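Hi V.,

Quick status before I head out on leave. The structure for the redesign project is tokenized and pasted below; the design run finished overnight.
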């Protein structure tokens, strides 16, 4: 079952940040789509098993782009 989450990443500041987030998350098995936006500082991630949100969130924290999840 596919899941989708949209969240803010306050420290996205440049296109390099966007590329890093997209490339790093795309390497997680099960992640099917990553769209990061520099201007709105938002990221949309779509995934299915074996990926899960705790794994995606941990990767973001590891690369210093912690999500601002409400």
């Amino acid at each position: 079952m596919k899941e989708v989450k949209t969240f803010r990443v306050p420290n996205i500041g440049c296109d390099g940040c966007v590329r890093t987030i997209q490339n790093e998350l795309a390497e997680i098995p099960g992640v099917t789509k990553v769209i990061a936006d520099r201007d709105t500082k938002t990221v949309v991630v779509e995934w299915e098993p074996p990926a899960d949100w705790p794994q995606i969130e941990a990767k973001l924290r590891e690369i210093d782009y912690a999500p601002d999840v409400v």
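Above is the designed sequence. The chain has a mean pLDDT of 96.

G. will cover questions while I'm gone.

Best,
W.
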